[in-house]
Amino acid sequence: KDQKVIAIDGPAGAGKSTVAKKVAEKLNYIYIDTGAMYRAVTIKALNQGVALSDVDAIVKLAENTDIKFVYDEKGNQRVIMDGQDVSEAIRTPLVTNNVSEVAAIPGVRHAMVKLQREMAANQGTVMDGRDIASYVLPNADFKFFLTASPEIRAARRQKDLFAQGFEVSLEQLTREIIERDRKDSQREMAPLTRVPEAELIDTSNITADQVVDLIISRVLEGD
Ligand code: C5P
């Protein structure tokens, strides 16, 4: 097939989703935000009052959750969970600070990975997450690992949160981001990791557009 698959992994705040979205737009590929899927399961559990420690109940809930990505009339991608638009609701600090616990549950990952592989089949795809190159799509045509210093990642998160009306200190956000990376890297199943063949891109001192151009040039070179 001439439609390629591009995997973009990395820790929180490395710029993955901004970059992945733009790369997908330029190539006319679909963009799959796997973090949004774990966030959707998390918000559903929180809304239903299911204890996150009740692993069996959370797995059952994940297996019975319908998640879709659709485009609105302005061309913005929206996250639809069980028919409801949760695009903004999944970005609150409450969800962010609980998602890693839910994402560590193997049964939850099995359910999400099944959906992710189905979404990527038969079309040009940009998928971002933590385990895309290492686990979800090990045969991806292009693999990138984005990173940046914790302070810079926390500053990006602060800007996003401020735009949503949340004011959180840089110290607190840096602590939270380091803690989330620790949980994501140390979990048993499909942890955050860089496969040796993934190209490492430090986004600390370059713009998202520069990262996009680099990735696009690799894809064009590879053709
Ligand atoms: O990318 P984002 O910050 O939205 O991801 C939210 C959380 O979802 C991560 O901190 C991680 O716990 C989980 N996640 C994951 N595997 C992925 C993508 C996200 O475990 N492929």
UniProtKB/TrEMBL annotation:
Keywords: ATP-binding, Cytoplasm, Kinase, Nucleotide-binding, Transferase
Nucleotide-binding as UniProt keyword: yes
Keyword Transferase: yes
InterPro entries: Cytidylate_kin, Cytidylate_kinase_dom, P-loop_NTPase
Known catalytic reactions: dCMP + ATP = dCDP + ADP; CMP + ATP = CDP + ADP
Subcellular location: Cytoplasm
Residue ranges of every copy of the Cytidylate kinase domain listed in the record: 6-218
GO CC annotation terms, alphabetical: cytosol
EC number: 2.7.4.25
Gene Ontology MF terms in the entry: ATP binding; CMP kinase activity; dCMP kinase activity
SUPFAM superfamilies: P-loop containing nucleoside triphosphate hydrolases (SSF52540)
GO biological process, any: nucleobase-containing small molecule interconversion
Binding-site positions, ATP: 10-18
Pfam families per UniProt: Cytidylate_kin
Family: Belongs to the cytidylate kinase family. Type 1 subfamily.
NCBIfam families per UniProt: cmk
Protein name: Cytidylate kinase
Organism annotation: Thermincola ferriacetica
